[in-house]
C-alpha cells in the first residue's frame, strides 16, 4: 500500500460539537489505515478533546480566531498554509473558513471541502428554510469577544466589523464562492445537506460521506428509567427551549419522568431560568458539558432521546442513540429525517410545536415496549452504516480516490 500524506484543516477545537468529533474520527481512520495525517487548526483545547497521540498524526496549532477569523486573520492563515501544505497528497478542509485558508493560497495540492454545512449567516434564506423565525445570526454565539474588553479586542483584531453586516456578508460570500469553485470535490454528511449545497453553489454535486461513531456495546434491555435525554450544544437553533415547553404540557404525567439536558452553550443560563419559570425545575437536570463516558451512561439509562434541533445538517446524537439501541424523537425536516424512519426507528414531529413533542413523549411513556422496539430497529440499521469501522473504510476509500483522481 502506498502511504499518503493528508492535511486536515479545521478552524478550531475550542468547543464541543459533532463536527469536531467527526473530524477527529476521520484523522483516526486515516491513521489506522497506515497513512500520515497532519491536523491544522487555530487552537486545540485538551480539556475538551483528548491529546493527539495517534500514530502518524501531527498537530499544528496556527493561532488566530478560528471560526471568527476576519479578513486580516484569513490572509495570515492563507499565507501560512501556502507554505505548510506543500508536499501533501491531499488537503481536506472542513467548515468555514478552513476552505478559504486551504484554497486561496498557492501550494499546488488538491483540496477537498468536507462540508458539514456552509456558513449559515451567509445564506440564511436557504439554510434556515426549515427553521421559521431564525435569522442570519441565530445559529451560535461566541464567547471570544464578550464584554467591553472583548469588543475592543475584536475591533483591533479585525476593524472590518465596523462595516454594516450586509457589506461584510457580501464580501464573505464572494470569497466563499471562489473557494468552493477551486475545490476538487465536495463531501457532505447527508442528502439533506447535499441538496442545500447544490442550491447554494450553482449545482455543485456533493458526495455523501456518512459520519462514523464509536460507542460502547448497546444496552438492549435493562430496567430503563423514565428519562428523556437531550444532548446538544445549547444555542438558539438547537431549540432546547421547545423541550422544556413540551415537558410543562405533560401535566401530572411530568412527575413520572426526568428530563436530562447534556451540553453547554450560550443558552444554558436562560434555559435554567425558563425551567424555573415553567415550574419544572425539579424534573430537569442540566449537566453542562460532561465526559464522553458519562454521556454514554445517560444514553444507556434513558428511555428515549429527544433531539430538538432545527434545520440540522445531520444530528450526531441521533446516530449515537441508534448505536445504543435508543429511539429518537426529532424534527421531521432536516438531516434527522434522513436517519429516522417515522414510527419504526423513532418519531418525527414538528419541533416548533411543543404540543406535538409532548404528545410524542406521552406515547413513549405509555408504551415503553414500543420505544424498545424502535431502538432495536434503529440499532439494526445504524450498526451497518455508522459504526466507526464501517465508516473508516468508506472515508479512507473516498480520500484515496480523491488523491488518485487529482493526478489523472
Structural overview:
- This protein has 408 residues and is α/β, with parallel strands linked by helices.
- The protein folds into two domains: 5-213 and 387-406, Glycogen Phosphorylase B (Rossmann fold), CATH 3.40.50; 227-382, Rossmann fold, CATH 3.40.50.2000.
- Helices cover 41% and strands 14% of the residues.
- It is built from 15 helices and 13 strands.
- It has a seven-stranded parallel beta sheet with strand order 3-2-1-4-5-6-7. The protein has a six-stranded parallel beta sheet with strand order 10-9-8-11-12-13, sandwiched between helices.
- Helix 7 (191-200) links the parallel strand 6 and strand 7.
- The chain is globular.
- 45% of the residues are buried.
- The model is unreliable at 136-144 (pLDDT under 50).
Amino acid at each position: 500500500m502506498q502511504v499518503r500524506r493528508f492535511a486536515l484543516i479545521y478552524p478550531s477545537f475550542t468547543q464541543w460539537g459533532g463536527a469536531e468529533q467527526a473530524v477527529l474520527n476521520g484523522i483516526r481512520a486515516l491513521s489506522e489505515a497506515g497513512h500520515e495525517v497532519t491536523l491544522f487548526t487555530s487552537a486545540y483545547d485538551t480539556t475538551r478533546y483528548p491529546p493527539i497521540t495517534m500514530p502518524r498524526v501531527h498537530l499544528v496549532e496556527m493561532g488566530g480566531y478560528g471560526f471568527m477569523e476576519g479578513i486580516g486573520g484569513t490572509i495570515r492563515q492563507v499565507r501560512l498554509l501556502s507554505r505548510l501544505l506543500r508536499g501533501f497528497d491531499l488537503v481536506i478542509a472542513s467548515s468555514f473558513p478552513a476552505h478559504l485558508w486551504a484554497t486561496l493560497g498557492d501550494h499546488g495540492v488538491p483540496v477537498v471541502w468536507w462540508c458539514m454545512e456552509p456558513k449559515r449567516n451567509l445564506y440564511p434564506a436557504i439554510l434556515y428554510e426549515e427553521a421559521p423565525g431564525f435569522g442570519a445570526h441565530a445559529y451560535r454565539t461566541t464567547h471570544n469577544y464578550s464584554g467591553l474588553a472583548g469588543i475592543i479586542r475584536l475591533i483591533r483584531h479585525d476593524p472590518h466589523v465596523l462595516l454594516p453586516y450586509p457589506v461584510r456578508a457580501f464580501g464573505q460570500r464572494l470569497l466563499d464562492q471562489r473557494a468552493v469553485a477551486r475545490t476538487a470535490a465536495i463531501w457532505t454528511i447527508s442528502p439533506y445537506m447535499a441538496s442545500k449545497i447544490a442550491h447554494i453553489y450553482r449545482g455543485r454535486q456533493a458526495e455523501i460521506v456518512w459520519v462514523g461513531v464509536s460507542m460502547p456495546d448497546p444496552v438492549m434491555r435493562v430496567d430503563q428509567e423514565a428519562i428523556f435525554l437531550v444532548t446538544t450544544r445549547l444555542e438558539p437553533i438547537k431549540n432546547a427551549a421547545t423541550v422544556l415547553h413540551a415537558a410543562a404540557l405533560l401535566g401530572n404525567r411530568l412527575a413520572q419522568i426526568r428530563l436530562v439536558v447534556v451540553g453547554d452553550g450560550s443558552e444554558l443560563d436562560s434555559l435554567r431560568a425558563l425551567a424555573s419559570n415553567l415550574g419544572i425545575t425539579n424534573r430537569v437536570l442540566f449537566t453542562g458539558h460532561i465526559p464522553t463516558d458519562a454521556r454514554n451512561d445517560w444514553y444507556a439509562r434513558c428511555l428515549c432521546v429527544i433531539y430538538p434541533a432545527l434545520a440540522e445538517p445531520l444530528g450526531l446524537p441521533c446516530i449515537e442513540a441508534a448505536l445504543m439501541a435508543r429511539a429518537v424523537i426529532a424534527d421531521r425536516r432536516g438531516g434527522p429525517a434522513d436517519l429516522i424512519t417515522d414510527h419504526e426507528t423513532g418519531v418525527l414531529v414538528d419541533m416548533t410545536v411543543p404540543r406535538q413533542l409532548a404528545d410524542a413523549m406521552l406515547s413513549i411513556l405509555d408504551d415503553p415496549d414500543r420505544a424498545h422496539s424502535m431502538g432495536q430497529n434503529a440499532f439494526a440499521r445504524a450498526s451497518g452504516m455508522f459504526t466507526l469501522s464501517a465508516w473508516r473504510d468508506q472515508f479512507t476509500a473516498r480520500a484515496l480516490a480523491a488523491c488518485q483522481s487529482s493526478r489523472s
